[in-house]
Specification:
This protein is of the alpha+beta class and 266 residues long. It is built from four helices and 17 strands. The strands form two sheets. Strands 9, 10, 11, 12, 13, 14, 15, 16 and 17 form a nine-stranded mixed β-sheet that branches. It is globular and about 50 Å long.
């Protein structure tokens, strides 16, 4: 039996934090630059702003349904938060609380805001999903796609957080072939985003999340991102860590954009 909290679709929000140097204001220049960067690297169109202060926008792919959105926060730091699309947000939130989540707010429009056991913000919404967008084809013939959210978890909370997300989504948990600090949830067909959970090294590190790309040509993809304003932070055997113009980390990986899996060893 499918749990009330099992999502039919998942949307990742890139939340742009308030600018402390501007007295806590969101900082339009930083916001516009961040949104413009992600629109450029994904090849997605930026929607017309919406919300009372124009604080929301969607990155609209040329095909399939949108799964990346942006939000300008009134307070707080940059972050990633997740929207889980379900038939009944209230029932899903109640189930999440039984699994260890904490409810933060319930909006009259029907969505519910919660924190996971480790503290990651996520929402249940009633909006429908759609079809998964195809990878973007680059000029050199390579393909790329944002296809994964990695939840970064302090070591003391890691096992509980992995169990929470597996039970919440109903997706099968799998061990990583790359490192024991990772585990993943098997993405159902048609879903836009995989879930990866990473155990952080330091106990004092807060929970967070970042986005991962799958690409068939990591070197060329890295060069494109750098040309558009990203900075390379570190290079590893099967992934590269970059920082976007707003200071948000994300990764390019050697996984297949169609399947989300690493290619077999040569």
């Amino acid at each position: 039996m499918r749990a009330a909290s099992s999502p039919a679709w998942v949307t990742a929000f890139l939340d742009h934090g308030a600018d402390p140097e501007a007295g806590g204001d969101p900082g339009d220049a930083g916001w516009d630059g961040a949104v413009g960067f992600w629109a450029a690297v994904t090849g997605y169109a930026r929607s017309v702003p919406r919300g009372a202060t124009g604080q929301f926008a969607t990155l609209v792919p040329p095909d399939g349904a949108a799964f990346l959105k942006v939000q300008r926060l009134d307070a707080g730091a940059d972050r990633i938060h997740l929207d889980l699309h379900v038939a009944d947000p209230r029932a899903a939130a109640d189930h999440a609380v039984t699994l260890g989540a904490t409810e933060v707010a319930a909006d009259p429009d029907g969505y519910v805001v919660l924190r996971s056991p480790a503290g990651l913000v996520h929402c249940f919404v009633g909006h429908p999903g759609g079809s998964r967008p195809a990878p973007v084809v680059r000029d050199g013939g390579g393909t790329a796609l944002v296809d994964q959210v990695c939840i970064d978890v302090p070591p003391a909370s890691y096992d509980a957080e992995c169990s929470f997300w597996a039970e919440l989504t109903g997706w099968e948990r799998r061990s990583s072939l790359v490192s024991t600090v990772f585990s993943s949830l098997l993405r159902p067909d048609g879903q836009p985003l995989r879930f990866l959970l990473q155990r952080l090294d330091r106990a004092e590190d807060p929970v967070g999340a970042h986005l991962d790309w799958a690409t068939t040509d990591r070197a060329a993809e890295t060069a494109l991102h750098v040309a558009l304003g990203a900075t390379v932070e570190s290079v590893h055997p099967v992934w590269t860590v970059l920082v976007d113009p707003a200071g948000r980390r994300y990764c390019l990986t050697d996984r297949d954009p169609a399947t989300g899996l690493l290619p077999p060893p040569r």
